[in-house]
Write a structure and sequence with these properties.
Blueprint: E1 4-8, H1 13-26, E2 29-36, H2 43-53, E3 57-62, H3 64-78, H4 89-108, E4 112-114, H5 123-134, E5 139-141, H6 143-146, H7 151-160, E6 174-178, E7 181-185, E8 215-222, E9 225-229, E10 232-233, H8 236-248, E11 254-260, E12 266-272, H9 274-290, H10 293-311, H11 318-330, E13 336-343, E14 346-353, H12 361-364, H13 376-396
Parallel strand pairs: 1-2, 1-4, 2-3, 4-5
Antiparallel strand pairs: 6-7, 7-12, 8-9, 8-13, 9-10, 11-12, 13-14
Helix pairs in contact: 1-7, 3-4, 4-5, 8-9, 10-11
């Protein structure tokens, strides 16, 4: 009996070629596993394509709800943005896919799992590290990292073996998408001086073609999790889909980023993240209303650490679980509503309210009703600046030669 391998199958070029290549190279029976995390794909067709290429079994798992509840919501609560730009859509999905690969391998009695990542990208690290954390006994096969074929050679291989693929030499973009965002790379985008052509975008309109009138949306949060849109309670998947539709229609969420890959090279990445752009801005605005200054400052440190560990493929490490405990505690009072204005490529916070707001109008106002005791400031300034005053008097005018 042949050994079995579970392949993370997207239906695209790399993984379609991989089914045939793994069978030829390793002699394994291949089980194709397609995972729906919000991609706009024809999954029955992808499932059939896996069988047509040579998989002994082709499975599809709808993991959208799990992705949102267990991964995206945590990222929102953490304000996760890699290097302040990338909302981590692809990076967030990889540990979930790895977990499902391992789960299906156990169910099917497979001794190996496989993915379509190259040796130059971040995803190979995310998959391998996650799989090893969950079950180090499973063998990991990465055909694109092993076979040494260029993209053109893959296309030629696919044609030679009559493998139907949705990529041609004339349209060589590599696209990854899910509920939280879409990434586009390869082709002319590899030149960081080249403006991205309009035809690469799928989630967002060009700002110049967006409506002249803005759209206002009100996003309700409970303990840092978005739960309603314009007063209507919605499940996470539906809410994110709707925000993405509204924001994308106004050209919101386009990101052209030169980022530092985990493997040590810089990479030009184009992202579309309309829902992430809006929801992360809204969440951060609500935290500003409910957090003290010290909480905000410390949360920035946590945000950077959390974002880096997602990007670096360390989702299943102890640090993430520890940070989740802190973040969960920090979100106890992050409840309220944020009003966002969507217009010509911009998402702007124009209103926020919370039953736990630390904003006190009677203290902040300069108009009638001001209760702030300005006389108290003199003593505060004296005590606050006393260390600096002492140091200046003792040292700055008396520096050694």
């Amino acid at each position: 009996m042949k050994e079995k391998v579970v392949l993370a199958y997207s239906g695209g070029l790399d993984t379609s070629v991989a089914i045939k290549w793994i069978a030829e190279t390793y002699g394994y029976d291949v089980i194709a596993l397609a995972i729906d995390i919000g991609m706009e794909k024809n999954y029955p067709a992808i499932q059939q394509r896996g069988l047509d290429v040579g998989a002994i079994k082709s499975l599809v798992i709808d993991a959208r709800e799990t992705f949102v509840k267990e991964y995206v919501f945590r990222a929102i609560q953490a304000n996760a943005l890699y290097e302040g730009e990338y909302p981590l859509a692809t990076a967030l999905a990889r540990p979930l896919i790895a977990k499902l690969l391992v789960d299906v391998a156990h169910q099917e009695g497979a001794t190996a799992v496989a993915h379509g990542c190259t040796g130059k990208g971040n995803d190979q690290v995310r998959f391998d590290v996650s799989i090893n954390a969950l079950d180090p006994k499973l063998k990991i096969i990465a055909p694109a990292r092993e076979w040494g074929m260029t993209r053109e050679e893959e296309i030629t291989y696919a044609k030679k073996h009559s493998i139907a693929i949705p990529v041609t030499s004339e349209s060589p973009y590599s696209v990854d998408e899910n509920l939280w965002g879409r990434s586009i790379e390869c082709g002319v985008l590899e030149n960081p001086w080249t403006e991205p052509p309009e035809d690469i975008y799928g989630y967002t309109k060009s700002a110049k073609d967006a409506p002249d009138e803005p759209t206002y949306v009100e996003i309700g949060f409970e303990k840092g999790v978005p739960v309603s849109l314009d007063g209507n309670v919605m499940d996470g998947v539906s809410l994110i889909d709707r925000v993405a539709e509204l924001a994308g229609g106004h050209g919101v969420g386009r990101i052209d980023n030169l980022e530092n890959r985990l493997v040590g090279i810089k990479s030009r990445e184009i992202y579309e993240a309309p829902a992430a752009t809006v929801l992360l801005k809204a969440h951060r605005a609500l935290e500003a209303l409910a957090f003290s200054r010290d909480q905000q400052r410390f949360k920035e440190i946590v945000t950077q650490t959390y974002s880096n560990l997602i990007y670096d493929g360390l989702w299943f490490g102890s640090l993430r679980y520890d940070l989740d405990a802190y973040i969960g505690s920090s979100q106890r009072f992050v409840t309220g509503v944020v009003r966002m204005k969507l217009h010509k490529g911009n998402a702007v916070v124009v209103g926020r309210k919370s039953p736990y707001s630390l904003y006190d109008l009677s203290l902040a106002t300069y108009d009638e009703g001001d209760v702030f005791d300005q006389r108290a400031s003199l003593g505060f300034i004296h005590i606050w600046g006393l260390p600096l005053t002492i140091q200046a008097q003792a040292q700055w005018g008396n520096q050694p030669e």
